[in-house]
Write a structure and sequence with these properties.
Blueprint lengths: L1 E8 H6 L4 E2 L11 H13 L6 E7 L5 E7 L1 H11 L15 H9 L1 E8 L3 H11 L7 H8 L1 H10 L1
Parallel strand pairs: 2-4, 3-5
Antiparallel strand pairs: 1-5, 3-4
Helix pairs in contact: 2-3, 6-7
Protein name: GmrSD restriction endonucleases N-terminal domain-containing protein
Pfam families: GmrSD_N
Organism: marine sediment metagenome
Length: 156
């Protein structure tokens, strides 16, 4: 298994969208519109988004394609915003001014291109990448209301 870390601008991701496949082990689209909007908000705020893991294939005829190992929801949210499937602050991508379109299009994502990997290793990598434990309600609240969280922690 080999990894090559690259950066793609969102516009590159969008142009390659039809060459990114989503294998059967990937869950369907589960992010709510609100969660998709939050990803777009993170992009506009310049917040780092976790890297995508894509298995890279280059065919004999030079055609390139990728299988998504991790990042399905993020990819679909980004493509969905480009396609006008949902609004961010009342605007679809097409409604944005040129400056905001430019910011979105040129935001850089980190991509881990994976090669020399067999199906068993792909599934193992996918499982390992899914080991993250979501925050519980208290942990989310603490991250949002850090000053209040500090106060509550001090009081307990």
């Amino acid at each position: 298994m080999k990894f090559m870390v690259k950066e793609w601008e969102l516009i590159e991701l969008y142009k390659r969208r039809n060459r990114i496949n989503f294998p059967v082990y990937q869950r369907g689209l589960v992010w709510s519109e609100e969660k998709r909007r939050l990803l777009v908000d993170s992009i506009f705020r310049g917040i780092d988004i976790p890297k995508l893991y894509l298995q890279y294939f280059k065919h004999d005829d030079g055609y390139e394609e990728w299988d998504c190992i991790d990042g399905h929801q993020r990819i679909q949210a980004i493509v969905g915003f480009f396609d006008g499937e949902f609004e961010y602050q009342g605007d679809t991508f097409e409604d944005l001014g040129d400056e905001h379109k430019e910011i979105f299009e040129h935001y850089k994502l980190t991509i881990a291109e994976v090669t020399e990997i067999d199906e068993e290793e792909v599934r193992l990598l996918f499982q390992r990448l899914q080991l993250g434990v979501p925050l519980n309600a208290g942990e989310r609240l603490n991250s949002i209301l850090s000053n209040m969280g500090k106060f509550v922690t001090e009081m307990t």
